[in-house]
């Protein structure tokens, strides 16, 4: 445990030393801006009527806060030699970070399930892939994560005041570091990983072996050119979801696996420290690249930006 603020700052800089500070700040800044732009891109009325884009818009919204917090932390530490934990209640900030991380990572589950239902099970997609259900699921996820992490607000008192902790608070700190760690890993990595892998296999099979049906009965496609355009659009949406899942696997997983390895003392301190810094960079990049995927793979996403600069 860390005894004072200078030790916290030294530990933070040591952990991230292998990666240049300017690179981390650049990635975080672009991540913050790109997620704001993603929200703007998904504001179109026709996209807001589709559940998949409601989920993607909220995903972008939830991913604004972590880059913002990390960016403030990096700037304070590397510019002013200050820690954000010194100016905000540790339990409130810790609660916010854990909850936002869980919400953000968990949101790829309804995104993947929504797309899988749309492609594979027509009757279920008509029933569940609509804006009302989407907003209800989002509210349920947010409420659940707020509740599951509420113990942090009630009992967590930070690591820089061990001498002032009560016996009950010391027991909680042990629970937080030794047991809650695995619960949190299950919520924000293992469960999303397993569900999205299953959905991804179904989407890949459908993408290469099946044609996408036009399920809008009001729009009877008689023109082959229109039909092909529609099928291409649906394939691009599926490809976007697959790429988001793939990003989660390759950019978030190393960070989690290294944390697990540290728990079991699998790696040496030097190797673990270097790997952790690189994994953190990957993790931050996860919040950055998604906007680029939307821009390059979905033409309708770019329309608000074109109108803005006309």
Automatic annotation (TrEMBL):
Any Gene Ontology CC annotation: membrane
Main location: membrane
Localization (cell): Membrane
Annotated PROSITE patterns: G_PROTEIN_RECEP_F1_2
Domain of life the protein comes from: Eukaryota
Keyword entries, A-Z: Membrane, Transmembrane, Transmembrane helix
Ranges annotated as spanning the membrane: 20-42, 54-80, 92-113, 133-156, 186-208, 237-256, 276-297
InterPro entries from the UniProt entry: GPCR-Ligand_Int, GPCR_Rhodpsn_7TM
Domain G-protein coupled receptors family 1 profile span(s) in chain numbering: 34-294
Protein name as it appears in the record: G-protein coupled receptors family 1 profile domain-containing protein
Native source species: Brachionus calyciflorus
Higher taxonomy: Eukaryota, Metazoa, Spiralia, Gnathifera, Rotifera
């Amino acid at each position: 445990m860390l005894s004072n603020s200078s030790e916290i700052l030294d530990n933070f800089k040591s952990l991230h030393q292998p990666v240049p500070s300017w690179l981390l700040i650049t990635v975080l800044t672009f991540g913050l801006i790109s997620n704001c732009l993603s929200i703007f891109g998904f504001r179109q009325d026709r996209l807001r009527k589709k559940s998949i884009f409601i989920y993607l818009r909220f995903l972008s919204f939830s991913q604004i806060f972590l880059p913002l917090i990390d960016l403030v932390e990096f700037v304070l530490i590397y510019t002013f030699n200050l820690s954000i934990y010194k100016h905000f209640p540790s339990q409130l900030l810790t609660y916010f970070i854990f909850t936002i991380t869980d919400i953000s990572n968990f949101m790829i589950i309804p995104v993947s399930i929504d797309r899988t239902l749309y492609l594979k099970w027509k009757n279920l997609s008509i029933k569940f892939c609509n804006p009302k259900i989407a907003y209800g699921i989002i509210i349920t996820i947010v409420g659940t994560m707020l509740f599951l992490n509420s113990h942090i607000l009630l009992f967590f008192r930070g690591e820089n005041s061990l001498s002032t902790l009560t016996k009950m608070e010391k027991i909680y700190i042990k629970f937080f570091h030794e047991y809650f760690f695995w619960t949190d890993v299950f919520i924000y990595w293992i469960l999303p990983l397993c569900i999205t892998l299953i959905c991804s296999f179904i989407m890949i099979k459908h993408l290469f072996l099946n044609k996408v049906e036009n399920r809008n009965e009001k729009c009877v496609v008689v023109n082959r050119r229109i039909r092909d355009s529609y099928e291409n659009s649906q394939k691009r949406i599926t490809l976007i979801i697959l790429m988001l899942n793939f990003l989660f696997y390759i950019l978030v997983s190393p960070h989690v696996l290294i944390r697990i390895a540290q728990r079991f003392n699998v790696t040496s301190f030097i190797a673990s420290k270097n790997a952790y810094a690189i994994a953190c960079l990957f993790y931050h990049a996860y919040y950055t690249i998604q906007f680029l995927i939307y821009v390059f793979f979905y033409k309708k996403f770019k329309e608000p930006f074109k109108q803005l600069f006309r």
